[in-house]
Design a protein that fits this description.
The structure holds three protein chains of three kinds. By secondary structure, chain B is mainly alpha-helical. Chain B has five helices and no strands. In chain B, helix 1 runs antiparallel to helix 3. In chain C, helix 3 runs antiparallel to helix 4, helix 6 runs parallel beside helix 8 and helix 8 runs antiparallel to helix 9. The longest helix of chain C is centred in the first third of the chain and has 37 residues. Chain C starts with 26 loop residues before the first helix and ends in an 11-residue tail after the last helix. The chains are: A mainly alpha, B mainly alpha, C mainly alpha. Chains in contact: A-B, A-C, B-C. At the A-B interface, helix 1, helix 2, helix 3, helix 5 and helix 6 of A face helix 1, helix 3, helix 4 and helix 5 of B.
């Protein structure tokens, strides 16, 4: 539709359906926040399931959690915090229209995101896979062997629930990171090319909001999975 | 066609100093949560008097996580500097997230032990065999589906993990 | 932006030469459109398609139940049939029906915007909807689902050998489609209103869509993740809800109903918005108690989230919680009743015209009242233990869903059909089919209340333990044939009207909404040729002025001067 294109209004480029740049910016931010509300509820349901089972099977959860490395979890937390800071800085420089610094901080975010995934997929998960700790049909047998090897173990059924939750929640979180890497990559390319869809700082700010949310989820996942008290 | 024509959304970037100090506080809190979480393992003697107060360690962990979340939302996501509408959605999302936890009331309120209305007693563990009779002064074993407490099924050293009787699911 | 109110851009007889329908004729221009009106039309085709598929399944169910022995289908096939009926009707018809078709089409016009806030997201939501629908259809053709639309575990996880996982993937995706629409609506309603169009000048239709969108963004993600976890259980053997693996199946029910109870308000709230528009227009009166109706939409949306447990009285849910849920469920009846009373009082002393949309609106009120009141039987934990899982519940939710949502949907389609297509339909056939639907509907579902009270369980395909129920089943099946015929009629005469109908005047009903007074019929692509400023309230109808409208000028003068004529006594 030719009508649905960028138009000049009041000296700034805004989309067809908006009256001025203020309205466009505010609408995008409201839309993004209502989307984040759905994301909160999306992960919220998982946190609820986690809470119930941990409350019910607290001791077993404590025993199983010892197979997770708090150190790698902590490093990943720090990496995500840095990436969150980096994208906040990118928004800061986007508002100042400093393209070089904006791209630099977005690159820092990307590096952190890739590092996070590298730790997750090349160190943390393979360690579980090597013991066959995937909650499938063979789990009971594998877990029994693993528990005998370690000298401690929980009820295999509960361990299976724990690993199901662990893999689903960290997996969905990792999926959000992968999507984030894609979006930030596209954003960087468009900024670099001075694409016309980058009208102002709002695209960077929206991606930033998404990225902070991903960080937020991890802030809760980390103590809940890696630091269970006895 | 903005209905509230005022420039309510801030075009001023959040000062870099704010972002940096926020980052530092977040890093400190992260170290704090690790220390609080791991201290019982590292220095067990310190926690000896608190070993049954599991809720303290849990509260500390979740409390710090909430604090960190607040810092990320208010500063990094800029809610502190945003319009009322954005604040409304940000707070509303988290309030509704807490409402989801009303589901837990079911699990608190489910009748336990002798606290059962007549006619609604859970079946005894051996009810299906039909051979169980309750002796005087003895409570029948209770099976609550989905809430079965497992013992130290696979723990070769049971003394390492204390498993109290009658904990009632907590 | 001009400060004055614009006059309607077209006189009554003219239609714009270039409108959104004939702006471009290629298929590509439809498939890649970001125009909210075209996307609304595409949604209309989509939901109609799924509605008739679901209807075929319903006809098969009714045919099976004519005999106490249920000889036409095997038990498994019957399970798959009613599951298909539920899944198609709820997820692919009722939930998107009004918001995604009429809502998409009208929302920007009602608030004075050129389009929704995110037009490309809007188009994406249609594609996601169609793709998810096709995935579910593939799943049904390659094995089907026998777990029912509720997918209770472990029936849908450990004890299934059919296409539950694929179906759930489809439903997961369709959830994203509604979320996209809801995010779009929320941003649009908050930020794109015309200058002067304050919240309390909005049509109630917009309020009800706002409430619906709030429910969608808060509820849909919860059910999406829950169904996703069942997929993980099915496909990879994860253990979350399966009692055989230490999980809690009641937790699934909690999470499922946390969304699925508010989901019935997703289905019926937009319908209530449609009814508010129709009743005011055909009574020629402003709505009675505007703020009460507006707030009642929000109250339904919020309190509706607190009543999910009334679906679970006979699960192992705590009886104490059951008492609380029972009380809260009664509370939801209050805002619903506020609406019904206000609609009734709007008609009082109005100048009521029995046009086709008005007949649907009146049918809605009657059927919704029956559906709502029988809901109270089910909300009270005591009677629910007897009635739950019987045909009483089937009848109850069909009274609310078919009698509420579908009747409102049809009413809305008839009301805005001239706006959407620029064509008139035959008023005779419109009224006829509305009455056929009303009669067929009651004949189908009223006997089911009696059946349920007598104890006929739902989801059974035989009842040879009580063959005396056959009478009611035959009544119900006969009614469903009439109902099916009634649904077929609009499909035929509306298609005919679209292709060969008479051109509609600019505002055939004399309605006062922005979409009628300030937008051409059919609309141009950008809706408003000039920005609009609103300095008037919604529903600026005047029954007295409208009642004397057709009279000769002399008589009008006499009436206005306080004298009487024969006509005025009718007021």
């Amino acid at each position: 539709m030719s009508a649905h294109t960028l138009e000049k209004h009041d000296g700034e480029e805004v989309y067809f359906q908006f009256e001025d740049i203020d309205q466009q910016q505010e609408t995008y931010i409201v839309g993004m926040w209502s989307f984040l509300v759905t994301e909160v509820m999306f992960f919220g349901a998982m946190f609820l399931i986690y809470t119930l089972y941990r409350w019910n099977y607290h001791i077993d959860f404590y025993i199983v959690h010892k197979s997770l490395s708090w150190m790698w979890g902590g490093i990943n937390t720090f990496i995500l915090l840095v990436s969150s800071f980096a994208i906040a800085a990118a928004v800061h420089f986007a508002m100042k229209k400093d393209k070089a610094k904006q791209l630099m901080w977005l690159t820092v975010t990307q590096v952190c995101a890739v590092a996070f995934l590298a730790i997750k997929f090349s160190i943390e998960w393979p360690e579980k896979f090597s013991h066959g700790l995937i909650p499938d049909g063979a789990f009971q047998q594998n877990y029994t062997a693993y528990a005998l090897e370690k000298g401690y173990g929980a009820m295999p059924d509960i361990a299976r629930i724990f690993y199901s939750l662990y893999f689903t929640m960290t997996g969905l979180h990792a999926l959000h990171i992968i999507i984030g890497i894609g979006i930030i990559g596209v954003l960087m390319y468009k900024i670099w090319k001075d694409d016309k869809i980058i009208t102002d700082y709002i695209p960077t700010e929206m991606v930033g909001l998404y990225w902070h949310f991903v960080d937020l989820v991890w802030i809760f996942l980390f103590p809940l999975f890696y630091l269970i008290p006895a | 066609m903005s209905s509230n024509g005022s420039h309510s959304h801030s075009h001023e970037p959040i000062p870099m100093s704010k972002l940096v100090s926020n980052m530092i506080i977040l890093a400190i809190l992260m170290v704090l949560t690790i220390v609080a979480g791991m201290l019982p393992t590292w220095v067990p003697s310190l926690y000896e008097p608190l070993k049954n107060a599991w809720f303290i360690t849990n509260t500390v962990a979740v409390g710090i996580a909430c604090w960190k979340a607040y810092l990320v939302v208010s500063v990094f996501m800029g809610v502190r500097y945003s319009t009322k509408l954005v604040k409304f959605y940000a707070i509303g999302g988290f309030v509704w997230f807490l409402m989801l936890f009303l589901i837990l009331f079911d699990y608190i309120a489910r009748p336990q032990g002798g606290d059962v209305a007549v006619g609604w007693e859970p079946a005894a563990a051996t009810a299906l065999q039909g051979s169980y009779t309750v002796k005087e002064g003895e409570e029948p074993p209770v099976v609550l589906p989905g809430r079965v407490r497992y013992g130290d099924y696979l723990n070769p050293e049971p003394h390492k993990v204390k498993h109290k009787e009658g904990e009632g699911g907590h | 932006m001009s400060a004055a109110v614009q006059e309607p851009p077209q006189s009554d007889e003219q239609q714009p030469r270039k409108n959104f329908l004939n702006a471009d004729h290629t298929i590509k221009s439809w498939l890649l459109t970001v125009d909210h009106k075209r996307i609304g039309m595409m949604y209309l085709l989509g939901v109609t398609f799924f509605f008739f598929l679901g209807g075929i399944a319903a006809a098969m169910i009714r045919a099976e139940l004519t005999s106490p022995r249920g000889g036409l289908m095997s038990s498994e096939f019957y399970n798959k049939t009613f599951s298909a009926h539920g899944i198609l009707m709820i997820f692919f018809f009722l939930i998107p029906s009004i918001p995604a078709t009429l809502g998409n089409f009208l929302l920007p016009q009602m608030i004075g915007a050129r389009d929704l806030a995110f037009p490309r997201l809007n188009l994406a939501s249609w594609y996601v909807y169609m793709i998810s629908g096709i995935i579910v259809l593939i799943a049904m053709l390659t094995g089907g689902v026998s777990a029912g639309w509720t997918f209770y575990v472990p029936l849908s996880s450990s004890y299934t050998n059919d296409q539950v996982a694929l179906t759930l993937v489809g439903l997961f995706l369709s959830g994203f489609s509604s979320i996209m629409t809801a995010v779009n609506f929320i941003a649009t309603i908050h930020k794109m209103r015309a200058p002067g169009l304050t919240w309390f000048r909005l049509p109630l239709y917009v309020w009800s869509h706002y409430a619906t969108s709030i429910i969608i963004i808060l509820g849909t993600p919860v059910v999406a993740i829950t169904l996703f976890l069942v997929v993980m259980e099915n496909a990879f053997g994860f253990a979350i809800f399966d009692p055989a693996r230490g999980g809690d199946p009641v937790l699934f029910q909690h999470l499922f109903w946390f969304y699925s109870h508010p989901a019935v308000y997703i289905m019926v709230l937009p319908g209530m918005g449609v009814i508010s528009e129709i009743i005011t227009c055909f009574s020629r009166r402003a709505i009675f108690g505007y703020k009460f109706v507006a707030y009642s939409s929000m109250a339904i949306a919020l309190v509706g989230f607190l009543v999910w447990g009334h679906h679970m009285y006979i699960s192992s849910q705590s009886t104490y919680l059951g008492i609380a849920f029972s009380l809260l469920s009664f509370l939801v009846a209050i805002p619903s009743a506020v609406k019904v009373f206000n609609w009734s009082l709007t008609m009082y002393k109005g100048s009521v015209h029995f046009s086709t949309p008005m007949i649907y609106a009146l049918a809605f009120i009657g059927l919704f009242v029956i559906g709502g009141l029988t809901g109270l039987f089910l909300a009270s934990a005591g009677t629910d233990i007897h009635l739950t899982g019987t045909y009483f519940i089937v009848a109850h939710f069909h009274y609310v869903m078919v009698g509420g949502s579908i009747v409102a949907f049809l009413g809305g389609i008839h009301f805005w059909w001239p706006k959407m297509t620029g064509k008139l339909y035959s008023e005779y056939w419109g009224k006829f089919s509305a009455i056929v639907i009303f009669v067929g509907f009651n004949l189908t579902f009223f006997p089911q209340f009696i059946l349920g009270y007598l104890g006929m369980p739902r989801r059974y395909h035989y009842y040879d333990f009580a063959p005396e129920w056959q009478f009611y089943h035959i009544l119900s099946t006969a009614g469903s044939s009439i109902l099916g015929f009634g649904f077929l009629l609009p499909a035929i005469y509306l298609t005919h009207s679209f292709l060969k109908g008479k051109r509609s005047p600019h505002n055939p009903w004399g309605a006062r909404g922005l979409e009628w007074t300030h937008v051409a019929t059919p609309p141009i692509t950008e809706n408003f040729s000039e920005p609009v400023v609103v300095n008037f309230d919604a529903y600026a109808y005047d029954p007295e002025a409208d009642a004397i409208e057709g009279l000769p000028e002399e008589e009008q003068q006499i009436i206005l001067a306080g004298g009487t004529t024969k006509k005025e006594e009718l007021l």
